[in-house]
Design goal:
There is one protein chain. The chain is mainly alpha-helical and 328 residues long. The chain folds into four domains: 10-84, 3-Layer(aba) Sandwich (Rossmann fold), CATH 3.40.50.300; 94-165, Helicase, Ruva Protein, domain 3 (Orthogonal Bundle), CATH 1.10.8.60; 198-262, no CATH class; 284-326, Arc Repressor Mutant, subunit A, CATH 1.10.10. It is 56% helix and 6% strand. The protein contains 16 helices and six strands. The strands form three sheets. A two-stranded parallel ribbon has the order 1-4. A two-stranded antiparallel sheet has the order 2-3. Strands 5-6 form a two-stranded parallel sheet. Strand 2 and strand 3 (52-54) form a beta hairpin. Helix 2 (29-41) crosses helix 4 (78-84) and helix 14 crosses helix 15. The longest helix has 35 residues, at 186-220.
């Protein structure tokens, strides 16, 4: 352990007396196990020793932690809590004991005056009222700290409300508390996921409707029958919420009018020709495409490999290898 001499621990020193455990609610779980063993059996093992020692102490423990919440969240052992809480004293926060605030402040001010050998500070009436209204989230430790700061820093021993406010941080205590705003339950995430799915499904449905309308326009052209059959879809596309919405049926009809040069007398025939063209292009292999591009580039640059390689986006060495591969 690195220990060079025998040293007595807290429970050994407190044998036959009282030991005070401050902030017991913050103890790590392994330490809680060892403390429970001492409380149950009155025995402990010193670090590095195998000899069990006895102790008989009275334990006083204090904490600001809400113990039942700590037990529920598995941060404090329930059996240790009931072993410690034989006589339980609940001390309200300082803000709920207004009669004690000024009394404690005067006590602290007197202590610091003695410690620093200076006159005792005194609060004016308006300062006392501010002292009582403050929430004191840090409880007595904060009150003691404020009394010490004023005692050390203020030359004038009579403290007004304005001077006191300089030592009281604004905690926003008058604002309404929002509980659990940052905590989202599983049902909240599930609801958001369902909304997202619905939006995606709606988008898919709209896209399918647009495909259907486009196909009908390509096959049948722009006529009254197509407009009548897809009237609801057209209105949905040009909705009132759209900033570029069209206000009348005539406007909608005008939008759907195709340019004359784009209207083909035999759309089905063109569609078949287009499919044939695609099929013909797809029959070309990658090697044939590559060979064709290299030949065209070399021809364009009069056989200059460096310029051709730059145009093709490959190195001159790679181009030389391709020329050799295709026997150009």
């Amino acid at each position: 352990t690195g220990a060079t001499s025998t040293r007595s621990g807290y429970f050994e020193e407190a044998d036959g007396g009282t030991i005070f455990l401050d902030e017991v609610g913050e103890l790590p779980l392994p330490t809680q196990v060892r403390l429970l063993r001492v409380l149950e059996n009155g025995e402990f093992l010193k670090v590095g020793s195998s000899k069990t020692q006895k102790t008989d102490v009275r334990i006083v423990a204090a904490t600001n932690v809400k113990m039942f919440d700590a037990i529920k969240n598995e941060r404090f052992r329930e059996d240790l809590y009931y072993r410690l809480s034989t006589v339980e004293i609940n001390l309200p926060p300082l803000r709920d004991r207004k009669n004690d605030i000024h009394l404690l402040f005067r006590k602290f001010a007197s202590d610091f005056a003695t410690k620093y050998k200076m006159p005792t500070i005194r609060l004016e009436d308006d300062a006392v009222q501010n002292l009582l209204k403050y929430r004191w989230s840090g409880n007595i430790r904060q009150l003691r700290n404020v009394a010490e700061q004023i005692s050390v820093l203020e030359q004038n021993r009579s403290i007004s409300a304005e001077k006191l406010r300089a030592y009281l941080p604004d905690t926003g205590s008058n604002l309404p508390a929002v509980i659990g705003q940052n905590k989202k339950s599983e049902s909240d995430f599930s609801s958001e996921r369902e909304i997202l799915y619905k939006v995606l499904f709606d988008m898919k449905s709209d896209l399918n409707d647009l495909k259907k309308l486009t196909l009908e326009l390509m096959e049948n052209g722009n006529n009254a029958t197509v407009q009548e059959e897809n009237k609801s879809l057209i209105k949905k596309i040009y909705s009132e919420d759209d900033s570029d919405a069209y206000e009348s049926a005539e406007d909608i009809t005008e939008v759907l009018q195709l340019p004359e040069e784009s209207v083909v007398s035999s759309p089905m025939k063109d569609k078949y020709h287009f499919a044939e063209d695609v099929e013909e292009e797809e029959t070309l292999s990658l090697q044939e495409k590559e060979l064709e591009l290299i030949e065209k580039s070399l021809e364009r640059h009069n056989g200059k490999r460096k310029a051709a390689a730059k145009e093709l986006g490959i190195s001159e060495r790679t181009l030389y290898r391709k020329i050799k591969q295709y026997d150009l």
